[in-house]
Amino acid sequence: MIFRSISHSLVALVALGGSWLQAANPGPAFPDSLVLKNGTTVYGIILKNSWDSILLQDKTKEKTYPKSEIVRIRDEADPGMYFTEVNRRGELPPWRVIANDLRTNDAIQKLEEIPATRITWGRFKNIPYKSFRVNTSIELNIYGDPEDPAAIEFGIFGLRSGNDKLRKTLRAYLAGFLSSRQEIAALYALNFKGATQTVDGLVFEITPKNAPDAQGAWWISLSNTEKLARTRVSDSEYAQVTRPKEEVVDKYGRLLIKTFKDTQRSMTDTIKELSASSGETLRGFYRNKDGSLRFITKPREEN
Questions:
Q1: Is residue 105 part of a domain?
Q2: Quick check: 203 and 112 in contact, CB under 8 A?
Q3: Is 160 found in the same domain as 66?
């Protein structure tokens, strides 16, 4: 996903994967395109799709296209691009695929990277990870290399942690990344009160909020045991990309702080494939009051 001469405003959700999208063909490497009546095709990221127009961000600017001038709207991943990928059994999708699904889901109003809290017990102990708060009460964690994750996990904090409708929604979302009936059956066989299944090297697990490593949330996760073992780091290395839980969230899972210490770098900061020409680091996205997609960035810290 390395793209040449992209503007800072497009350090977008594709950068969440840690590198820029690169098309398999010579065409522009953008997830969305509009076919216009004058015969031209324009490429970019759709920031807003309203009843009468499309707001599109290309590599230099935002522009509004009236729907009366549009023949076709393509807002799904191009098969020739690297936004989508077919997983093999036992594999998990790259973060760019997860990001693309999240940004096209209107129910996701905000996704913002937060400091990863220290995990000192269980399967994910000492595994570096990217942590995101989704809307207000949901946490998304991507463990290991975001391009080849060792685990993907959703957690629900607060009163909604017991909401079966939300639990089923997150389960269905994860099921969309699985590649076999056996894997899907294992995921759906899990008891919401807590259970574990293993198929094709993947561990499917639900952790209730009263478990020792639950940090007060209900969790559903997919993980690859071998990759977790290869990704685990020393205590000192782990301390560089995590913070004590009590510094980040309270006992109800509410965020206390959203910033990163000057001496601590997030997983996004440490991903080698990030474009060296970019002066910003992506922290997520949100939808403003009129429904337009906007990106949360910060100036890149100096090494």
A1: yes
A2: no
A3: no
pTM: 0.69
How far is Cα 152 from Cα 102, in angstroms, rounded to an integer?
Answer: 14
12: domain CATH number is 2.30.30.100
Q: What is the pLDDT of residue 274?
A: 36
Q: Mean pLDDT over all residues of the chain?
A: 76
Counting every residue, how long is the chain?
303
Amino acid at 59: K
pLDDT digits (tens, 9 = 90+) for 267-302: 444 443 333 334 455 567 777 777 776 766 655 443
**H or E segment and range at residue 169:** helix 164-175
User: What's the CA gap between 207 and 157, in Å, rounded?
Assistant: 12
Q: Output the six-digit token pair for 285.
A: 């996205």
CA distance linking residue 21 with residue 275, whole number of Å = 11
CA distance 210 to 217: 8
Non-local (6+) Cβ contacts of 88 within 8 A are 179
Phi, psi of 128 (to 5 degrees): -60, 145
pLDDT (tens digit, 9 = 90+) per residue, 84-137?
454 566 688 887 778 777 777 778 888 888 889 999 888 999 999 989 899 889
129 falls within a domain: yes
The C-alpha atoms of residue 47 and residue 293 are separated, in whole angstroms, by 5
Separation between Cα atoms, residue 241 and residue 251, nearest integer Å? 21
Domain with 43 in it = 8-74
- Which residue would you say has higher pLDDT here, 180 or 57? 180
Report whether 242 contacts 232 (CB < 8 A): no
Residue 86 lies in a domain: no
Residues 240 and 205 in one domain: yes
| 229 pLDDT more than 90 | yes
Read off the DSSP letter of residue 86. P
